[in-house]
Amino acid sequence: MTTAPDPQQDGFRLSQLIYDTRYRSITIQVIALIAFMAIAAFLVRNTIINLSNLGKDIDFGFLFNRAAYDINQQLIPYSSDSTHLRATIVGLLNTLLVAILGCILATIIGVIAGVLRLSKNWLTARIMTFYVESFRNIPVLLWILAFMAVLSEALPTPRAFRGENPEASMWLFDSIAVTNRGTYIPAPVWGSGSAFVVITFLLSILAIWAFGKYAMRRFESTGQMLPTFWIKLAIFFVPSLIVFFLLGRPIGLSMPELKGFNFGGGLHMRNSMLALWLALSFYTGAFIAEIVRSGILAISRGQTEAAFALGLRPSRTMNLVILPQAMRVIIPPLISQYLNLTKNSSLALAVGYMDLRSTLGGTTLNTTGRELESMLLMMAIYLVVSLLISTGMNVYNKSVKLKER
Amino acid sequence: MKKSVFLGALTMAGLAAGAAMAQDSSTLAAVKERGMLKCGVNPGTPGFAAPDANGKFVGFDVDVCRAVAAAVLGDSEAVEYTPLTSAVRFTALASGEVDMLARNTTWTFSRDVDLKNTFVGVNYYDGQGFMVPKDLGVSSAKELSGATVCIETGTTTELNLADYFRVNNMDYEPVPVESFTEAQTQFLAGACDVYTTDASALAASRASFEDPDAYVVLPEIISKEPLGPLVRHGDDAWGDIVRWSLNAMIAAEEYGVTSANAAEMANGTDNPEINRLLGVSGELGAMLGLENDWALNILTQVGNYGESFEKNIGENTPVALARGLNAQWTEGGLIYSPPFR
After folding, report:
1. What is the pTM (predicted TM-score) of this model?
2. Best label site of A68, A125, A259, B328, fewest CB within 10 Å?
């Protein structure tokens, strides 16, 4: 019997790295990576040397110096005595605030516009088409400036509210003042014991969620439906109100009123924020509308027909059959729209909204002259924020994805 | 994915590094070879630097650029103007995008020392003021507690404002705006009660309003704002040229040399200082590395300091600024040139 020669067992030889297909691709990748790293290292080193020749060493120490400028919208306490680092954080929080508010409003606008664009009503569908096309095809910076121009030119100044026969008056029982410096709304004043009300409120939200689960299980096992909407509404309001009155109304309202040059009291929503928020939301909403429309159209017509054949009403067909399936198509492109909105918020400086770009990349950069450091830090922060958003959305995407069993 | 992000970031850093090239050593040689001076100016402050009806930049700061071009190249029109916002001006200068900056820039310690600039002199002594609508009924900045203030971001005025209100225990609501024009729009729309910037710019801006009389500039000047041209560190010879071009304009006013009589005086006068200035005697031009008629070119083509002042921002112009601190030292002002000797 002839025996085939044994495969060589004497181990690994260097030439295998090139001639053995098992190793070749790894070899090439490693060499490419080393070459790339070498080039990158050379360029980074070159930058640093050139900068130090210009007398500009990379140094982030300026972040701990006194900022010396004021910021109008602060979510955390800040004064001109605070450091540049704190100014950066104030700016970052303002960025996140407008990004979160924007994502929420853009989603609402987008879903409504997307569904209505498929409406059988000719007028509704055309209006939505007009909205989508006009907002998608005009740069967002122009929309931001346009919203700001309308808000500051068309609305009355606080002085117009003054006098015996004021030219302008407040809305809703004198509780909301809409001026060209911003909108003033009543703000809650947290008295002692208000924490209990808040805790009760949070607990009732939890209860609503638990009740929803219970009602669903009951429906699946017995087929009986509870009037969930009314019960949920009751859970939402009743316990909190009871605690609120039992504790002697610990949460008061601070009403806006004319004081000196401006309105005082209440919550001041600045026009810069409103303009940025509305413009970003309507702009991104137009893209989301198209995503929603494509998601719905991606579900085959047969699904709707099958649902109708089972006797489901059109609204239930949409909620129970179409939207859950459409979500799988909608979520991935929706993530990039959220990222776009967050990044577009850096146009805030155009209307003087003090976001990260306006604090760290604006006044801090200007007064310290640390362009490269500020820019690198700002890029790093936007990168981290964007990666966090997409990680979060990817987790949600996994939960609605088709479960393959 | 994490790795790809990292590698992508590295690539971008690399590209940025490639763009940061080494500076050439002599700005003077570069300007002469180019036949053109690159000058950074304000995009639009009437009187100081703004395009005229033909789109050509004119103004008091622009005249400094023209003077340097006249001294170096013999032609005051050989200037390429780069309009710069306050945010990018120092970067543009440091990167060599412009040869000099004549852009109402306040001379401060940190800008001079930390940002590695060389301020070569002061062409306008300014201070920060406040403008309010007349019907607000305010007569002093001390009454502005609680006011909404329009302020250009990234300027020294923003820092002065914060300090002033803090020291006087008043609060205010800053409305940051990105540019001079945006500030005017907001102020005119009543989105802010007060507009604050350098007093000269306030006057310039008030002059451009439809109804200037409805606005008043408050008497308080809350800061020192010496405005002047600057160059980057590292080329002292170039800094000398810009410094003495400005001084030539100032000295010429002091000695009564004007654009009208400069050519005549260049034939020789009794005053040895004028003779040295105009290159009749001495080798001042050669010491700077320029022709000996460098100052004569400045004076015939641009005029002296007083002429430039009257033409652009003087009392007969819409900006209507009085000489005040900017009068010659002989007339009680601060404008003073070291001797030409």
Report:
1. 0.77
2. A259
